[in-house]
Structures are given as C-alpha cells and as structure tokens.
Design brief:
It is a single chain. The chain is mainly alpha-helical. It has helices at about 5-10, 15-35, 40-60. The protein contains 3 helices and no strands.
Amino acid sequence: MSDSTNLKHKDWESLPEDQKDMLREGIRNWRSWGSWFSWGSPVGLGLFFVEVGAFLVLLHYAGLIG
C-alpha cells in the first residue's frame, strides 16, 4: 500500500477488501494510461516541441515573423 492511498483514505482499514482492490486497480490503470504520452514523458514532450516548431513555420510562411 502506498502512502498516497493512505493519505487519500484516512479510514483505509475500515474499507471492505473489494473496495481496496478496486482502488488499487484504478491507481494502477491511471498510472499506466498516462505513462508514455503525458507531457512529462519523452514522447509527449517531443510532440509538444514538434507542434511548436510547426506553428512557428506556419507563422513564418504567413509573413508574421522573420
């Protein structure tokens, strides 16, 4: 059990076991869902820089910069 779960649910010990399992599964699924494409990941960060570069190229072609 992680500390974050204990902080979120101060009455963790009083929860039924099926609810504890459901919470654990939800936390595990959430972490795996955003792990490879979130803004903090290399893929997400790379996509962000590509988008910024494409935007700057479009501004250049429109004659608004350099």
